[in-house]
Amino acid sequence: MFRFKRSQRVQELLLEEISKLIQHGLKDPRIGFATVTGVELSDNLKHAKVHVSILGSAQEREDSIEGLDSAKGYIRSCLGKNLHIKFVPELHFRLDETADHVEKITKIISNFHHE
What we know:
The chain contains 4 helices and 3 strands; from the N terminus they run αββααβα. It is of the alpha+beta class. The longest helix has 24 residues, at 2-25.
């Protein structure tokens, strides 16, 4: 039970710090308006899936993910300095398409009510 609490705390810290870095620390022009929506940490705390919601076209989303992937080393080094944890997990950026699904469902429901 203690490990679960630790992994939850580390996930929350990672989410907060990565969000700050994306908003204020990265200068890559490929990265558009991106929001970190969640972090999934492996049981051994060595790998983290970072779910990112990105506004824009499919190409802009793809470019943003590529920009984030190329900035992994910088992000990890900043996390190591800021979080003071023994091991900074390997980051894997994933596109979070939840907002797209919500929009599609909303349109379907809206069209259903208008008929």
